[in-house]
Amino acid sequence: MKRLLFLVAITAFLFSCKKESAERQRNQITNDPTIIQDQYGRQLILHGLNTAANAKADSLRNPWISESDVEREVNIFGFNVVRYLIFWDAIEPQKDFFDDAYLDRVEERVNWYSSRGMYVMLDMHQDMYSIIFGGDGAPAWACRTNGAAPIELPGGTPWWLKNIDPQVVNSWINFWAYTNHKDLQDHYILAWKKVIERFKNNPYVIGYDLMNEPWGGDLIKVFITGEFERYQLTAFYNRLIPALRAADPDKYMFFEPTPAPVTFGMPSNLRKISDTRSSSRTVYAPHCYPFDTHEGTGYTAASKSQLIDFERERKKESQLHGNVPVLIGEFGLTPHQAGFDEYLKDFHKMSDRNQWHWMYYSNDRGGWSPLNADGSETLIGPWLVRTYPKATAGKIKSFSFDTDTKIFEMTFVANAAIGEPTEIFMPNRHYPSGYDLEVNVTTNYTQNFNSAKQVLSFSTTENDKEISIKIAPK
Fold first, then answer.
1. pLDDT score at 160
2. Radius of gyration of the chain (CA)
3. pTM, to two decimals
4. In this structure, what DSSP letter does residue 34 have?
5. Can you tell me the distance from the alpha carbon of 120 to that of 48, in angstroms, rounded to the nearest whole number?
């Protein structure tokens, strides 16, 4: 009997220790506001496309894609995220009427991505304020022009100069004038809440891009004094984020500076944007378009200088906002210009060394796209299909991929409390004869390569140890 009681006591003690150990491991998975994490606690690096520019003009605001296109993006190109364009005028076409049929169509397409383990960032898109002015975004009832007459721009004028149209200018000025036009921003918040109702329980909807390329309207406040970002845009985000947090306490909030001159490498004037969450989940999401490459005149000395400026200023701004992650929500260019490949090489080096996330603009076939009209890859395509750490069971110290040698290197601090493996996307096209894997510091690991998904899964029971991985083609 004593022996039986002893065995029971020992069993209970061991079970208690095991339970305590498991609890300690769970407690080691913490929210880290400096990185983007998945539902398992792994650090994500997000690479993907915008879907899709054509939706701006589509009568139903649907992108051109089919489910097979999503399959290709995740399994052939290895993308793990999409920036999916949605529109205020489709959500709330008439004041106080919210179109559930539109949200049904969005949900159907979001599920194409999420059912394949791909993350979705929902982007409330706008250009030139509204489709009423030839752009997209706000519904007609939210356009307050003060009776201004439109202006006609000469043929061949860049589309974005339409932002100087008095109708566009006045609509923006009124939108930001919260005291006098409070209902505009309040209804913008309501539109977002309708979206959140649909998607807050989908773990693969990673978050919300609060407004695409917010524009101030008043050129003096945008370019000269910086008042637009410093006061109006900052106030907007500090009004919007708490309101959305009440509806969704956990997803990431992606906030953008004004496009110009930030896209050209100039500093932003935004003041610190804070989360109401105890552990912040905000992400700084600027766009990157050096002027000459955007306009198709080549990767010039000016563009190279602007890319250097862009990196310097965005690093400063990430620190200002609390050392938050940086996601470049848009970048892109036509391949029919001198130095397009050099630009993409420099862009990727910049992104990798800073652990920045990116989404190429866009997946529409032709033009800047990685796809031709017939679905074949353009010259852009191969530059976007890269070896990279999709999800890391720990925290990355550094990673890089050399487009010439196809050598991938990564160093990370392992976290054994995370139950899912580190996953590295390794395109078969880069390793036609196989690969060599070199792991330093530990022999305590397992690895498995899924050739169909082109993903290397790497697991270790090491904890809090710095591990280096090198992958090279045979």
1. 87
2. 24
3. 0.94
4. T
5. 10
Q: Where are the domains of the chain?
A: 46-385, 386-474
Q: What pLDDT shows up at residue 448? A: 97
H helix intervals, 157-300: 166-176, 182-199, 219, 227, 234-247, 291-294
Question: Among candidates 408, 434, 442, which has minimal Cα distance to 45?
Answer: 408
**C-alpha pair distances (Å), 33 with each of 117, 228, 407:** 23, 27, 30
The domain 46-385 belongs to what CATH superfamily? Glycosidases (3.20.20.80)
Q: How many angstroms separate the CA atoms of 154 and 152, rounded? A: 7
Between helix 166-176 and helix 182-199 the angle, nearest 10°, is 80
Residue 13 DSSP symbol: H
Q: The domain 386-474: what is its CATH number?
A: 2.60.40.1180
What DSSP string describes 262-311? GGGTPPP-PPPP--SSSS--EEE--EE--HHHHTTS-S-HHHHHHHHHHH
> Which residues in the chain land under pLDDT 50?
1-27
**pLDDT tens, position by position, 424-444:** 999 999 999 999 999 999 999
Please report the pLDDT score of residue 155 as a whole number: 79
Backbone angles phi, psi at 276, to 5 degrees: -85, -10
Residue 312 phi, psi dihedral angles, 5° rounding = -60, -50
Measured over all CA atoms, what is the biggest interatomic distance in the chain, rounded to whole angstroms?
A: 99
User: Which residue type, as a one-letter code, is found at position 110?
Assistant: V
